[in-house]
Amino acid sequence: MIRLEGVSKIYRPGREITVPALRGITLEVIKGEFVSIMGSSGSGKSTLMHIIGCLDRPTEGSYFLDDNEISEKGDNDLAEFRNKYIGFVFQSFNLLPRLNALENVELPMIYRGARVSERRKRAAYALEMVGLSDRLRHRPAELSGGQQQRVAIARALVGEPSLFLADEPTGNLDSKSSEEVMGIFRELNEQGITIIFVTHEEDIAAFTKRVIRLRDGLVIEDQKNGEPKADNLKSGGVRAR
Ligand SMILES: Nc1ncnc2c1ncn2[C@@H]1O[C@H](COP(=O)(O)OP(=O)(O)OP(=O)(O)O)[C@@H](O)[C@H]1O
Ligand SMILES: [Mg+2]
Hints:
alpha/beta; 6-stranded mixed beta sheet; 4-stranded antiparallel beta sheet; globular
């Protein structure tokens, strides 16, 4: 599904300043994998996720998404790939405070010009999948942290992405909400969605079979055959499609 070959990213925040955030990453993720990315602060995790998520391009090297070379595409094409393939969840939820849960989830479809009835229906369904059918009219401030994160997940799911990316999805959550979110991820993965997420916590990474560790913009470890240790989870409330 995704392949990176010698991907580097150098930020140039000032005229004479260069920050090498990624320094030659070669990596392949197959369709249906469930992968966590770990590494200390500043090791390049978010930068890597932005490249995989088509939010940014590598400075050097190639990135292929389903055999399309993303590193050579223009901004419009990048946006199209994002729409077609990718659901992204950020650490800070990014929900609009004045909109209720249903309206927040509808947003990506408004940008795409879907009809009102269609987008209501799909947004309600996405919220049902994350167990929030009884919170459709609540605004973010009227929801718990875990519920807000689930609204953000529903919003990322509403476009039916084949690749689901999350940058520290449990970073702001207590352990119970974190487990709920991981339960949702696991059920999504069982439905065939490829999932890559960043975490600082070993016990959250333990939900996945594969753990990639970064240090100073390099992959220092890629554990592929680990059995997921946290295997006795309750259902996170996701319904099979
Ligand atoms: N837009 C930017 N301009 C300049 N430098 C940046 C930019 N974004 C990130 N960096 C630098 O690139 C390096 C990697 O940053 P990145 O955000 O990928 O780290 P991270 O592993 O996600 O860290 P954290 O765990 O703190 O989120 C850091 O040294 C950071 O300061
Ligand atoms: Mg980061």
